[in-house]
Amino acid sequence: MAQAQAALQIANTDIEQRRRAVAAARLRLQAGASPESVLFTAQAMLAQAELDRDRAIEEASAARLSLAALWGARSPDFNTVSGDALQLPALRDFALLNDDLQRAPELAELLGEQRIREAQLQLVRTRSRPDWNWQVGVRNSRADNATSLVGGFSIPLGSARRAAPEIREAEADLALLPYQRQARQQQLYATLAEAHGRYVTARLEVQRMRSDVLPQLQKAERAAEQAWRAGAVSYMEWAQLQAMRIESRQRQLDAAIAAQTALIEIQRLTGQGMLATDATVAVENAR
Fold this sequence. Notes:
By secondary structure, this protein is mainly alpha-helical. Helices cover 71% and strands 9% of the residues. It has 6 helices and 4 strands. It has a two-stranded antiparallel sheet. It has a two-stranded antiparallel sheet with strand order 2-3. Helix 1 runs antiparallel to helix 2 (36-70) and helix 1 runs antiparallel to helix 6. The model is unreliable at 278-287 (pLDDT under 50).
């Protein structure tokens, strides 16, 4: 939802600068300073920007419906969500995230599996022990009118031998678990390191676009407008700078979405909901 709103803002910015170009091209045409083709080109670029805006509006509408469905509602009772998709707070230190990884749900599941296999092995060993059956009774002899006490016991033979393969299998399964845990831990660590790196890189790109690239492109676009009105540059030079400005804003948004995706992956790996200092997106009702 925040992504769709940001895309709509970019489209509106493009429309605003394309409208200025159309107005300037019309004035220059009336003054005989530029051909009619320039006005047609500016109008076509404005139409493309309006198409991008309409597509962004539809995507935002679909995002609202999807978000409402996640809350069990058939129709959304909000129009926008608060929060800036480009705001990417700094993560906690990687060492701290790695500590959280040691308590990850997937590793905890392996520990539970170890306890289960230990219990299974104990049961198999118990079944392999022979059950001794004792019998005690009294016998009367009619011949000599005597009474005697009689006792006996029975021992099942071969039970330990029959259970030996099952015991070996259970022992092997139990011995394999530490290696499985180590391999899984290494895999999770590598995935965490990759996701952390992607987040840091994408966040840096978003910040540099905001502080360095976009302000300079905006100044260049404004300067090109003034130069074109004065006849110092061609219209295509101005239009190219307008396109570069919009493309850079879209690149910044793409980097922000990539960072958010990496953040979600880190949260999934560590089982922690909040990994940064501040990153919340709340719904802003607009009934």
